[in-house]
Every structure is written in C-alpha cells, then in structure tokens.
Specification:
single chain, about 100 residues, mainly alpha, elongated
C-alpha cells in the first residue's frame, strides 16, 4: 500500500490553501478550453447512453422495430377517444363550455 505524502502541520496546510493567484488571460483561456473539452465529453456520454437505450429496445423487440408507422384515419382516432372516455371513471368534459377565469401569461 502506498503512503500519502506528508503536508506538514495543519496550520501550514491552511495557509497554503489560501494563496491568491492572479487571473490573467492565459489562465482564463486554459480554464475555458478545459471546460469546453469536458463539456464535449459529457455530450458524447449522453449520446452514447441514448444510443444504448435505443439499441436495447431494438434488440428486445425486433419485429416492432421493423414495422413502419401507418397513417391513422379520423374514424379510428375518434373511436379510440370514445373508448378511452368509456374506460375513464370521469365523464368527458367539453372544453368549449368551461368558464375562463384568467389568462395564463
């Protein structure tokens, strides 16, 4: 097991941690470059995670992934809406008859 280097007495460590360094253009540019590189890594990780999720779902349901979406007729949409309303425990609400109290901005 490796041993950590000794930093000296606690008072010396505290004093050395409060050293002020001037902010100049070079340090600021280095910092921004480092942050931009880290942001690029994080964005790539996010894309990789999203791709892994997509690949997982494709592998789990290959037959559904091969199907293309078909347009739905208005009759099918209205039939589905009435089925959903029938299954709901609440009565359907006509939004045109509701009173408007105030406008959201």
């Amino acid at each position: 097991m490796t041993q950590l280097p000794r930093l000296g007495p606690p008072q010396k460590r505290v004093n050395s941690s409060h050293v002020r360094t001037p902010i100049d253009a070079k340090r600021l540019a280095d910092f921004l470059a480092k942050i931009e590189a880290y942001e690029a890594v994080l964005l790539q990780r996010q894309r990789d995670t999203e791709n892994q999720i997509v690949v997982y779902h494709i592998e789990q349901k290959p037959s559904e992934a091969a199907q293309t979406s078909q347009p739905v007729s208005r009759e099918a949409k209205s039939a589905r809406l009435t089925d959903d309303a029938a299954q709901s425990r609440f009565a359907p609400v006509d939004l045109t008859t509701l009173q408007v109290y105030e406008e959201f901005r």
